[in-house]
Amino acid sequence: MTRPALHARGLRRAFGDRIAVDDVSVRIDPGEIVCVLGPNGAGKTTTVRMCATLLTPTAGSVEVDGVDAVADPRAARRRTGLVLGGDAGFYSRASARKNLLFFADVAGVPRSERHGRVTSALEAVSLLDRADDPVRAYSRGMRQRLHLARGLLGRPRLLLLDEPTSGLDPQVAAETRTLVRALADSGAGVLLTSHHMAEVEQLADRIHVVVGGREVAHGSVAEISSASGVGSVTTFTTALGATTLAAAVDGLAGPLDVTDEAGRWRVRIPWRGAAREDLVRQWCLAAGGGVPVDLVTRPATLEESYLALVGASA
Length: 314
Ligand SMILES: Nc1ncnc2c1ncn2[C@@H]1O[C@H](COP(=O)(O)OP(=O)(O)OP(=O)(O)O)[C@@H](O)[C@H]1O
Hints:
It holds the Pfam family ABC_tran. By secondary structure, the chain is an alpha/beta fold. 34% of the residues lie in helices and 28% in strands.
């Protein structure tokens, strides 16, 4: 059996009498990207910090590449690249290369390998041509990539990325996602937090949804959708007011979403079980509105499933 890059079991963390994380378990195999999703204050960063040995769990265990991270945090850290991002974290007057040479020392990279590792980390994030510029001359996106380069210096088995594309423009964010996928493909296990649903849908092999410190669902996008109870979604446009439609689909769908589009109504129905387009057509005919316009049924997006899960747990 493959040795997991990360195996966290039954993680719990209390701050005083407040429980920030309660019984969260995450396994990541080499090459996998696992995402922790949850509203503000759900416990995502606390989970990442426990996996990074920056916080000791109140209960539970963390193994990084087979090393017990609670008993031997130094050995676990040598196998982990932590990317917290943000504008801070570098010496702004020093060049990117000098910064990374310093952090390579901190990460315990052997002296003979420091220059090679720094060059390959800068190359991986496409910053080699700006390596000798001072960090203060870097844009936000370049700094974010430099954070990633710093996380790569120790050739980690596990990469922990806390909101890696937060604040980046769409093009740089897309490049960062491509880089994260490439890092996983080269054998690292990746744990990432993000509030960007399309990003999670694109990158994550598995997702853990955490609300109020507790896991409420985990699995693939399809498994999260089925756990949320929103299997599929039907949308259509009608000239009718949709007030009686809710009664027609009562018990079969979650709350309808009805928006006024210049005198016509755009309706969205999140089905709990199988989609019932037949009921929608019957209702339109019975209410005197003829056939529904632009009637489409599609699988629920991750965002729709997530909102249903978070709403149900609130
Ligand atoms: N050092 C601390 N001392 C006391 N409470 C803390 C500490 N760190 C986190 N918390 C609390 O733990 C809970 C979880 O916080 P955490 O930062 O893990 O959430 P999060 O899911 O990362 O949120 P966000 O999406 O806003 O970053 C919150 O209620 C927070 O106030």
